[in-house]
From TrEMBL:
Methyltransferase recorded as keyword: no
GO cellular component: elongin complex; VCB complex
Species of origin: Trichoplax adhaerens
Keyword Nucleus tagged: yes
UniProt-recorded name of the protein: Elongin-B
Renumbered residue ranges of the record's region Disordered: 119-152
Alphabetically ordered keywords of this record: Acetylation, Membrane, Nucleus, Phosphoprotein, Transcription, Transcription regulation, Transmembrane, Transmembrane helix, Ubl conjugation pathway
Family: Belongs to the Elongin B family.
GO annotation (BP), single: transcription elongation by RNA polymerase II
Segment forming the signal sequence: none
């Protein structure tokens, strides 16, 4: 008997309170993580949240790393400033738009000592240098799709 059948059998025989608790846990497990890459100047943070978390919850995670209070942070999705009270799912983030292998991008700005938020400033990522010739694999496909295989 597979685990689903066992769980269904237990639910049929359980008292209503246990049935409600089981359904709640099952629904809670169906909420998947969404992943973010958060950038400010040369700082890059990777984190994950639930779709049901608020923007403020995400700022609290950032606070744990940067030690900057959530009220002194501003998160951007493109040019749009995200509202602290909104759910991440209401901001357009979902498991299909913010996956682990392709996280959603957010900009981060901090409040300065003058009380004003700094403008969004994200330094471009650097590109790694080309591999030296000795490290390139022989027989590697060329740009035209043909393989460069030489015989010895």
């Amino acid at each position: 008997m597979n685990p689903t059948c066992i769980a269904a059998t237990l639910l049929d025989r359980s008292i209503p309170f246990i049935r409600q608790q089981f359904v709640f846990v099952a629904l809670n497990l169906m909420i998947w993580d969404i992943f973010f890459m958060i950038r400010r100047q040369k700082l890059t943070l990777f984190t994950d949240c639930k779709e049901t978390n608020t923007v403020l919850d995400l700022k609290k995670i950032i606070d744990g790393v940067t030690k900057v209070n959530p009220e002194d942070q501003r998160l951007f999705k493109g040019d749009e400033i995200l509202d602290d009270s909104k759910l991440l799912s209401d901001c357009g983030f979902s498991t299909s738009t913010a996956r682990a292998q392709e996280p959603a991008f957010l900009g981060l700005a901090f409040r300065g000592e003058d009380g004003e938020f700094e403008p969004l400033n994200i330094a471009p990522l650097t590109q790694p240098p080309d591999l030296p010739e000795v490290m390139k694999q022989r027989g590697e496909p060329s740009s035209d799709g043909n393989s460069d295989q030489t015989e010895k």
